[in-house]
Structure to design on (735 residues):
């Protein structure tokens, strides 16, 4: 997982552990730039707008532009302010500028730059010390809601806090909040009048306690620059030249601050891509980028379309997605041109159900790792965090290490822990709980218990924490439904034991491995291989995307996902949620015309040669495989753990307990040596199956579920030696 585009045609700025020698002079700064990047680097006067597609090297272009201006003596390092949106991006920019011999240039986030100015000028503009900056505004929002006698649970509290942040960056005062929500067609997490009331109380408490929040840093800086022309003039004398990265994500408040920094000058360079606008829910808008040439008629406009990140096959699919886009941002889309050698075609796979999709994805990932792709260069991207659990489990079963980005692990989420405690209490004292009176079926019992924690039969409207909480609880309900389908006689206590076992298996230490992340969390990153999963209507676009603009933002979100891939790209969807379910789901409309048999708006159906093959791996594999039968009683098995053991959980086991313990000791040693969780060597179920079968040959060992060719090659000799009562070969241990 990396943040900076690199390829053989696009050398990295530096390699770890190497000292980079700055270019010898200004002209040398331009070496290695393509014609468009060179045009950006040498356009040092007047307003400049750089429209930069994904993977086209925008950071490279603007850092070389600053460095060229400094090294040529046109720009003074201390007079340049480069602003972006994350500390990581600002740090990367500063590092590149130092390597190019342009140290001393200020590269900061909007908030960091504003806070420095506010701290310096506050005593002069207002007097005294700057009010204390709130560490966590959510606590004050909680107190505000309590004073308004409005009860918020933990997740509603987080959503209302986000609404207050949105209101402030859009410069909406509390009294105007309800009207602003209605005008923007925004889905508020609660009644807009209630949120406006809480917002007003929050602002009052801040004034009473002389504290400010993160958004106030920008608001107060804007206020001082508007009221104190002498301070504004001093800042403008300090900073003569401005560069803004990710300009499509600028909020109205940030644009107002930028205008005040500039004054009547036009020494501004902005860089952005309207097709990557995916944060409108936070107040970001591409309008400032799209209107740049209107506001600055004489602006130099440069388009970067040479894609150094992705193969022609990936770029072709990305371009195809945007070709069907509508709206103003789509009118300014960039047609990317790959600069890389051809690679594999994107794989489109249709599965019968979600577990099959997760298992199939895990198998493909395992194959890629076996073929030499590092686990850290592979990502599984999904629309919402609640989708992660089934992929966590599938990767764990496949022995593939993984890490979550931008989300808590499923069983560590607060709502999941609370739900587990409630289910555990119901299992223990359910006979005295009126909630479970006349409720016999296990899934109904689970629904009854979780209804006290926020689960409802229908999902809540809108997005945010309330929706995420509901999705987590709904995942537990689905798990109960699947569990009782595999074990019709299962009790609530059995389900709780199953949840505990799953949680224990997934509480392993975090290791460097396959990245699991939401599409929003993946912005700005890239991997060799990307798996885009769950691409069905209702998830992509998400159900609460109603307006045309909301639908188009969902399309852009998928575009961002596609353009994260360098070489290997997989797109998949499942026709039903659970095994045996009705195949009622449809692939996302965004792939219409880009997959065989589908029709783009106003076009005829495409064939395999146009859209690439669609594999129906989940359906075909199960039909070929047939039922898995218990080797003791002959009953058909559906539970994944039982299928590994080849017997029902309740059927008698002939496991060699001593052998099982020796295998566990060996696994612990291997896991420590490899710095991986134990389950990445073999899961408990696989060790149990080995201890029951006691294989005597490689063929017998390979026939046990969970022992693939890679693990057979790596661990087979050790396992067979242990089964034979021998010591493992020392050479094998050190391999």
């Amino acid at each position: 997982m990396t943040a900076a585009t690199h390829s053989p045609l696009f050398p990295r700025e530096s390699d770890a552990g190497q000292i980079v020698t700055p270019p010898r002079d200004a002209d040398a700064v331009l070496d290695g730039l393509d014609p468009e990047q060179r045009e950006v680097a040498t356009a040092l006067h007047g307003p400049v707008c750089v429209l930069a597609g994904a993977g086209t090297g925008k950071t490279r272009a603007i850092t070389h532009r600053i460095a060229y201006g400094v090294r040529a003596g046109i720009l003074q390092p201390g007079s340049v302010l480069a602003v972006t949106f994350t500390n990581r991006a600002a740090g990367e920019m500063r590092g590149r500028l130092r390597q190019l011999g342009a140290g001393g240039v200020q590269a900061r986030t909007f908030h960091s730059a504003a806070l420095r100015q506010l701290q310096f000028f506050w005593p002069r503009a207002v007097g005294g010390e700057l009010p204390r900056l709130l560490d966590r505004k959510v606590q004050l929002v909680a107190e505000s809601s309590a004073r308004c006698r409005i009860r918020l649970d933990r997740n509603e509290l987080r959503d209302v806090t986000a609404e207050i942040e949105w209101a402030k960056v859009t410069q909406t005062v509390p009294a105007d909040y309800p009207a602003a929500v209605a005008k923007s067609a925004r889905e508020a997490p609660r009644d807009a009048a209630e949120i406006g009331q809480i917002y007003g109380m929050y602002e009052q408490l801040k004034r009473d306690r002389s504290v400010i929040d993160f958004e106030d840093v920008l608001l107060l800086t804007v206020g001082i620059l508007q009221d104190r022309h002498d301070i504004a003039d001093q800042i403008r004398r300090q900073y003569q030249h401005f560069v803004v990265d990710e300009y499509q994500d600028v909020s109205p408040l940030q644009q107002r601050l930028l205008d005040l920094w500039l004054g009547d000058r036009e020494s501004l360079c902005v860089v952005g891509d309207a097709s990557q606008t995916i944060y409108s829910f936070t107040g970001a808008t591409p309008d400032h980028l799209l209107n740049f040439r209107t506001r600055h008629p004489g602006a130099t406009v440069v388009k970067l379309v040479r894609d150094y990140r992705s193969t022609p096959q990936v770029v072709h699919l990305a371009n195809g997605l945007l070709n069907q886009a509508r709206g103003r941002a789509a009118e300014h889309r960039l047609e990317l041109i790959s600069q890389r050698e051809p690679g594999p075609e994107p794989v489109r796979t249709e599965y019968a159900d979600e577990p099959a999709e997760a298992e199939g994805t895990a198998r493909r990932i395992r194959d890629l790792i076996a073929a030499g792709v590092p686990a850290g260069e592979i990502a599984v991207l999904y629309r919402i965090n609640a989708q992660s659990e089934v992929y966590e489990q599938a990767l764990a079963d496949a022995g593939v290490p993984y890490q979550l980005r931008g989300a808590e692990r499923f069983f560590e989420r607060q709502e999941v822990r609370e739900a587990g405690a409630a289910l555990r209490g119901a299992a223990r004292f359910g006979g005295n709980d009126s909630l479970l009176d006349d409720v016999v079926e296990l899934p109904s019992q689970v629904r009854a218990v979780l209804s006290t924690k926020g689960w409802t039969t229908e999902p809540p409207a809108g997005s945010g924490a309330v929706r995420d909480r509901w999705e987590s609880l709904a995942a537990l309900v689905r798990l109960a439904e699947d569990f009782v389908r595999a074990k019709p006689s299962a009790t609530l206590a059995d389900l709780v034991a199953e949840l505990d076992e799953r949680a224990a298996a997934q509480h392993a230490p975090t290791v460097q491995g396959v990245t699991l992340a939401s599409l929003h969390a993946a912005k700005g990153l890239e991997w060799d291989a990307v798996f885009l999963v769950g691409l069905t209507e209702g998830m992509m676009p998400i159900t609460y995307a109603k307006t045309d603009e909301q639908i188009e933002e969902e399309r852009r979100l998928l575009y961002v996902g596609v353009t994260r891939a360098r070489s290997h790209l997989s797109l998949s969807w499942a026709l039903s949620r659970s095994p045996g379910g009705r195949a009622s789901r449809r692939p996302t409309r965004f792939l219409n015309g880009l997959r065989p048999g589908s029709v783009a708006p106003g076009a005829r159906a495409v064939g395999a040669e146009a859209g690439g093959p669609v594999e129906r791996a989940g359906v075909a594999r199960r039909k070929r495989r047939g039922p898995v039968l218990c080797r003791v009683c002959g009953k058909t098995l559906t539970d994944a753990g039982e299928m590994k053991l080849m017997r029902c959980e309740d059927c008698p086991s002939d496991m060699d307990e001593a052998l099982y313990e020796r295998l566990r000791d060996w696994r612990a040693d291997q896991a420590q040596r490899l710095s991986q969780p134990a389950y990445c060597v073999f899961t408990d179920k696989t060790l149990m199956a080995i201890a029951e079968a006691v294989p005597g040959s490689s063929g017998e060992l390979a026939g046990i579920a969970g022992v693939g060719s890679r693990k057979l090659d790596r661990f087979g000799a050790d396992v067979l030696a242990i089964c034979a009562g021998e010591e493992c070969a020392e050479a094998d241990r050190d391999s």
User: Anything to note?
Assistant: The longest strand covers residues 565-576. The chain has a mean pLDDT of 83. Residues 165 and 215 are 7 Å apart (CA to CA). The first helix runs from residue 26 to 29.
